[in-house]
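Entry for the shared binder. Reason: the reviewer on the internal report wants the predicted structure included alongside the sequence.
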Amino acid sequence: MKTVVQLDDQGYFVGTTVADESPLDPGTFLMPAGTVDVEAPDIPEGMRAKWRDSWVMEAAPQPNVAQPADEPWVPSTYAEMRALAYPPITDYLDGIVKGDQAQVDAYIAACLAVKVMYPKPGSDAALASGTDGGV
């Protein structure tokens, strides 16, 4: 067994792994796919190593992290408003499992009330209520 360097599909250092000695040819090591038999690189902070017949250091890409908004999120589309207003689906499932038709009917009625409260743009209900603002 010997330690070898594992590369990703673009040749970047991923870590180390083990190459086993061939049982049919002692002294020959069976190299796993995507490995090279070299010393692992010392990678400075903020860099990454790429194998190109020798180690080449490149700046590591920075993750694209969205900055938190200063203001809380406010739903703006009918779908977002509906999603927040619908009763939990567990109420419906509980009624089904218990065979409680009144609970199932109450869940359906609550969902229909949400649809009336937040109509889909372009629907007759939205046009009748004057809420068809295209959102």
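Summary line for the report: The longest strand covers residues 13-21.
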